[in-house]
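Hi R.,

Here's the chain you asked about this morning:
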Amino acid sequence: MSQPHRKAVLNLYKTLLYLGRDWPQGSDLFRKRLHKVFVRNSEESDPAKIESMIKHGQFVVKEIEALYKLKKYRAMKRRYYDDN
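And here is the predicted structure, written out as tokens:
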């Protein structure tokens, strides 16, 4: 793996670990699954394939952020607006 890809993968892993702290099923489960996915793909050497996996990982980061923002919005809505 080339150095730019290595840095991008490590940065993606750290970002996902950070986002996994608030995972609804628990951060430990998230960390185990994340580690399993990264270990499974660690032997990949095709630069195009690595680049596509990095882009998919960045998409997953955006989806997790959206999930957390939606959760926060729903909590605030429940707190301030009466559903009756």
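One quick note: The CA atoms of residues 64 and 70 lie 10 Å apart.

Cheers,
M.
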